[in-house]
Amino acid sequence: MVDTCDPTAETSRTMAEKMIGTGLKDIVRGEGRQMGNAKFVVSNLSTRKLGHFDVAVEGVSFSVRAGEILGIAGVAGNGQNALLDALSGEVEAHAATAIVLDGQPLGQLGTTARRKHGLCAVPEERNGHAAVGDFSLAENTILTARDRMSMVVMGLINSGAARTYTGKVITEFAVKALGPASLAGSLSGGNLQKYIMGREILQRPSVLVVSQPTWGVDAGAAAAIHQALVDLAAEGSAIVVISQDLDELLVLCDTMAVINSGRLSASKPVGTVTVDEIGLLMGGVHGDKTAEGAHAVPA
Amino acid sequence: MSPDLLIGLIITLVGASTPILLAALGELVAEKSGVLNLGVEGMMLVGAVICFAVTYNTGNPWLGIVAAALASTAVAMIFAVLTLGLSANQVATGLALTIFGTGFSALFGRAYTGKPLALFKSIFPDWLATHPVLKVLFGYSPLVYFSFAMVALVWWFLAKTRGGLILRAVGESDISAHSMGYSVIGVRYGAVAFGGAMAGIAGSCFPLMLTPQWVEGLTAGRGWIALALVVFGAWRPIRLLGGAYLFGLVMTIELYAKAGGGVAHVLPSQFWAALPYLATILVLVLISLRQSSNTSAPACLGKPFLPTN
Amino acid sequence: MQFRLEKRQEPSRFMLYATPVAAVVLTMVLGAIIFSLIGFDGLGAVREIFLTPLINPLKWQDLAVKASPLIIIAVGLSIGYRANVWNIGAEGQYIVGGLAGTGVALATWEMTGWWLLPLMIIAGIAGGMAYAAVPALLRVKFKVNEILTTLMLTYVSVQLLNYLVLGPWINPTGYGQAQTRLFNADQTLPYIIPGTIVQLGTPIALLVALVAWVLMSKSMFGFQIRVVGLAPHAARYGGFSEGKTIWLALLVGGGLAGLAGVLEVAGPFGRMVPSFPTNYGFTAIIVAFLGRLNPLGIVVAGIVLAITFVGGQVAQTTIGLPFPAVGLFQAMMLFLLLAGDILVRYRLRRVVPLAVAEDVA
């Protein structure tokens, strides 16, 4: 199919529609979605610098209600990876109470225990971090879904259960793969991302933290991922989306905060912030009062 | 300590340090280009047996050294073709090289077991080389002076020349070097070949300077110590020199203890024989304590280079 | 004609298992040629080394005896290699395992009872584990490369062996010969097939391989080992500690090498002697790779390497081929196997200019 158009006369949305050949579905925002009480509370979370070029997070605090999607904007390399590692459990917090889910302190638990409590996370790097390229999709499912989806019995792997769940992810997220036995490394970047997002979302976590959920994914798949996140929130989960794509965050999120040099601004409802305001925060200008509030604990 | 004993000690020390210094210099260059060749011990053994055979049959140690360097380079090329040409696992291939060298030297050394070889003496006039004091400076085999020259040469090459810069670039960031138009694989072939030649010359130190008759497995793990030495020297030639003489000192103590000097009898001779290896472990621990998370190892060390196009 | 390597979408399972076979066959062909060229009876060498032990049923029991320790050690090493833990000092762990078993035997040599042998075996495993714990500790705590430490400790263990058999453990009635006293009947392995030299070590080796196969392919233990080896970052994300995995890999490797050691000293040797180190620990590295780091493959590879050992002894007596030639054959086999590895991940395509390339792999 070939189509021609005048790029200046098209919006990015209509261009995307032309490229994927169908109309983009609008994300059905959970209108009238009930925001519950604060479900996921992070207070004064700090990490240590791991390497010379590493950016740590300092005194990060935020809270997400049930049904809420919090967006964390920021220019790449401002501590997003450290924040994700600290939230997922790859790096433990200094205090157990730094991360609280439904009143349960999770700060000093590892990733496995946090998943059992309902906190799942998706890091930015797909191949080698969120998935093992040399493993089949079914094995990659065991990597993070083994406990919540009962794939291990007395130390032995129930590979039937892993295959079934993987098949479900492939179908529901329209992953282009030959089947659960396909190697993760043989998938295209976008399809691997769909698989990874599906693997976490279908576990129905109470809290899902994702970094760059639609990085490198085509517009149609991005819309599907966004919809799945909105649906998960509508079921009462709390969601944190870390992204460098402002448009994505503005479409998807209920509240937003900005990370800069490892510090997080106060979060604000999406309707009340202007793009200019966010842009200034991303650039590290903390002139206004709301941003000052984020630095309750100076370094 | 009497002056005579001190001079004897220094001469033994230099003898023990020279082969590990030579082998480690070669490995340093290979590792700087990003290649981890664990086959040093095997290449040294090949060099040792070839050197012995050629020197024994021609009577010319110079020919022996050249033949040893060539033979070990050829063996290193097996490693290079496998790891660079076919991206085989470097650790496994290096081990295979050592197994090969051990078998090779045992097979071809059998004919020479127990046969004597004249030591490769100093090239200085006798009155200097055997002078009771001046022999400390002039009494060594040419291999010793060669090892010092190579320290300077490797330092100069890596630090001061364009070729050295390219070699380091290939070891630190193969992808950038590749995109700048340098042949990553070509540079690594060269570095591995140099490592092979130096290991061969290091191997020839054994028949020419240290054990003037053929003994199976005469390198006794010195190739592995050379590998540790590269880590100890933090991939810098000058530090490598210091490290080699430190290790040499431990081995010298072992030799004196075996000869039954003074306090050595307090502990069994096997303890002294194990000492260089224990010292190596200790030194590796000390280095890791001193170095922070910022390691000085080349960034691409041991990783295969696979250009996408 | 030009060839080009093209990355396969997925590694070829066929090549994974075909390349080791091809490596063995090519070793025989190339070996015959090379050994002929350097003045040996090349064809005779290949025949005696690779075929005689297989054809002659009298040699089968020798194969079982040689293959058992190789299989036990290689299974342990393969678990480590899968986790990217390069324990190359199995020889040392084997020696210390043998020494630990000997220690128990010497302490109990006037006693009898069925429990003596199990106690020695436990001591042997513990000895091998303890010796591998040193590099594990150094690697996890101080980030010291385990390749060098495991190897250095092998040289140390040889000295420890020499010290013990020459000193405190020397046979008091042995006229100063460097060896311990003979173990008593309850301290030696029973023969399991009457009239042969096949001892309990052989079924133990098969059992070890079978258990390891189940663990590696079906259990979370195996999953953890593999994920840490393939993608340490993903392993951390999946909740697997790299440090713990390194400990596990080295303890299992050391424990199995120790087991092989005590089975050897309580089996074929019957006492500790200075010639106890027989390079099983190093040969097992070849076995592990030839068996594709798969416990069942290792059983086959262990038998192949045992054939070369037994055949090497045959060739020594029949055609006068020096025994070290076996080492060259073994190294050649490993070289060819590593060279063939590329065919697992890449396919060879013939590049025909301006025409359709056709698959030749």
Features:
heterotrimer, B: 309 residues, mainly alpha, ABC transporter involved in vitamin B12 uptake, BtuC, 13 helices, 71% helix, C: 361 residues, two-stranded antiparallel sheet, 14 helices, 68% helix, 3% strand, globular, disordered C terminus
Protein architecture, described:
Chain B: It is a multi-pass membrane protein. Chain B: Pfam families: BPD_transp_2 (PF02653). Chain B: The chain crosses the membrane at residues 6-26, 38-56, 62-84, 91-113, 133-158, 189-211, 217-235, 242-259, 271-289. Chain A contains ten helices and 13 strands. By secondary structure, chain A is of the alpha/beta class. Chain A has one domain (33-295): P-loop containing nucleotide triphosphate hydrolases (Rossmann fold). In chain A, strands 3, 6, 9, 10, 11, 12 and 13 form a seven-stranded mixed β-sheet that branches. Chain A has a four-stranded antiparallel β-sheet with strand order 2-1-4-5, with no helix packed on it. In chain A, strands 7-8 form a two-stranded antiparallel ribbon. The longest helix of chain A is centred in the C-terminal third of the chain and has 16 residues, at 219-234. Chain A starts with 11 loop residues before the first helix and ends in a 7-residue tail after the last helix. Chain B is mainly alpha-helical and 309 residues long. In chain B, 71% of the residues lie in helices and 0% in strands. Chain B has helices spanning 3-32, 40-58, 61-85, 90-109, 126-129, 135-138, 142-160, 162-172, 174-179, 184-210, 222-232, 237-258, 269-290. In chain B, helix 1 (3-32) crosses helix 11, helix 2 (40-58) runs antiparallel to helix 3 (61-85) and helix 2 packs parallel to helix 4 (90-109). Chain B is globular and about 60 Å long. The model of chain B has no long low-confidence stretch (mean pLDDT 86). Chain C has 361 residues and is mainly alpha-helical. Chain C has a domain at 67-297. Chain C has 14 helices and two strands; from the N terminus they run βααααααααααααααβ. Chain C has helices at residues 13-37, 42-55, 60-82, 90-107, 116-142, 146-166, 201-218, 220-230, 232-237, 242-269, 280-290, 295-318, 325-340, 342-345; strands spanning 2-7, 346-351. Chain C has a two-stranded antiparallel sheet. The longest helix of chain C is centred in the C-terminal third of the chain and has 28 residues, at 242-269. Chains in contact: A-C, B-C. Chain B binds chain C through residues 38, 78, 81-82, 86-89, 91-93, 95-97, 99-100, 102-104, 106-107, 110, 220-221, 224, 227-228, 231, 268, 270-271, 273-274, 277-278, 280-281, 284-285, 288-289, and chain C through 86, 88, 138, 142-145, 147-149, 151-153, 155-156, 159-160, 162-163, 166-167, 282, 285-286, 289, 322, 324-328, 330-332, 334-335, 338-339, 341-342.
